[in-house]
Amino acid sequence: MKPIRLYAAASLLVLFANPLIAADSGGLEGALRQVVEDNLAAYNSEDASRALASVHTKSPAYAAMQEALPKQFAAMDARTQLERFTYIGHDDEFALARVQYRTVGGTAAPFMNNLLDTITVFHQEDGTWKYWDNYILGARVVQ
User: Fold this and answer.
1) Is 98 helix (H, G, I), strand (E, B) or coil?
2) Phi-psi region of 89 (alpha: psi -120 to 50; beta: other; left: phi over 0)
3) Which of 42, 98, 100, 115 would disulfide-bridge 83, Cβ 3.0–4.6 Å?
């Protein structure tokens, strides 16, 4: 495991262990959930620029997503829906949520309908919460 991933995992354990940090503060949970819902709406309508608008431009994944989204839209016709959103907590810079997505209907091989379970990290850019990164906890094939 890379040292950064190990540090991130250790940080998550600290958040899970401290219920005071996990208390919702001023509607943050709703704002983060809205980021996810807006991103999924853009993804499902195959609007790459709108989907990228919900991703922090300095995110480690931004450039890869910018390149991958148009290719995904051209190669398959999948739809993704939010299955579960659980706010975890925040500090002075980042916020975390456990997010589960169900993606179905993809036509490109070797795509399979799946349920993806993640810890998603959010970070503000110009006062707006956006995706920063996510860590996959698990994935399974579904019908």
Assistant:
1) strand
2) left
3) 100
